[in-house]
Amino acid sequence: MKGDNAMTRKTTHAGLLIVDVQNDFCAGGALAVPGSEQVVSTLSRYIEEAVANDVRIYASRDWHPAVTRHFKTHGGEWPAHCVQGTDGARFRAALHLSSDAVVITKGEHPDSPGYSAFEGHTPEGQSFLADLRERGIEHLYIAGLATDYCVKHSVLDALSAGLKVTVLGDAIAGVDATPGDSARAMVEIREKGAHVVAGAGSLTNAATSLAPERFVGLRPPS
Ligand SMILES: [Zn+2]
Questions:
Q1: Is 131 a catalytic residue?
Q2: Which domains are present in the chain?
Q3: Is 82 a catalytic residue?
Q4: 70 alpha carbon to ligand 1 midpoint, in Å?
Q5: Distance, CA 115 to ligand 1 centroid (Å)?
Q6: What distance in angstroms lies between residue 161's CA and the mean position of ligand 1's atoms?
Q7: Per the residue annotation, which of 150, 152, 157, 164 is the catalytic one?
Q8: Is 20 marked active-site?
Q9: Which of 62, 82, 106, 148 is labelled catalytic?
Q10: pTM, full prediction
Q11: Residues 65, 19, 67, CA angle at the centre, nearest 5°?
């Protein structure tokens, strides 16, 4: 029937952005984020669900040159991490990333930290945003590492681009170099319009907690 609720639901698509779940940010890595292992196991479930729902999966990765102003050795803030081609830069194997996940590479410029996935590009060299636009993706689920840096900057850029953003609160973890950084990041992204779902456990649960006009890209609950 025309005009019913289902018909008025937008037929735009959703994407899942997994931010920087790489060995160097996980246990044993150069810049291990506390709680990263829990994030990996939770994200593995979200990935399965995304595949089942035709939600396009993007996995961003830090991909730094050995010499960059991002590293302490060259005046930056961080120990060397995710150097191009090293084991530390690989995605965490336990993430079980699907083979059709689109890798977004960022952080290659020696003068820029490359915190946001929106500074990155696809394997074909297209910008992340251009790929989203081309596929009609207007709603991004975002999770990964680390809450107070790459997740925060990716969320803020997504919002600036006019995308709807749902942050999967049970699949993020922060560095907290200064205690409270992650909590402050969460306040900031909420203020800017991100919807943060704590402990949704599934994309469908996360989606159904949204107002109907924001419910896009996943099948309605039956
Ligand atoms: Zn980095």
A1: no
A2: 12-209 (3.40.50.850)
A3: no
A4: 7
A5: 7
A6: 23
A7: 150
A8: yes
A9: 106
A10: 0.89
A11: 10
Cα 81 to ligand 1 centre (Å): 6
CA of 164 to the centre of ligand 1 (A): 25
For 140-204, give the DSSP string. EEEEEE-IIIIIHHHHHHHHHTT-EEEEEEEEEE---SSTTHHHHHHHHHHHTT-EEESS--SHH
Residue 188 φ/ψ, nearest 5 degrees: -65, -45
Q: Tens of pLDDT along the chain (222 residues)?
A: 444 444 444 455 899 999 999 999 999 999 999 999 999 999 999 999 999 888 999 999 999 999 999 999 999 999 999 999 999 999 999 999 988 999 999 999 999 999 999 999 999 999 999 999 999 999 999 999 999 999 999 999 999 999 999 999 999 999 999 999 999 999 999 999 999 988 777 787 777 665 444 444 454 443
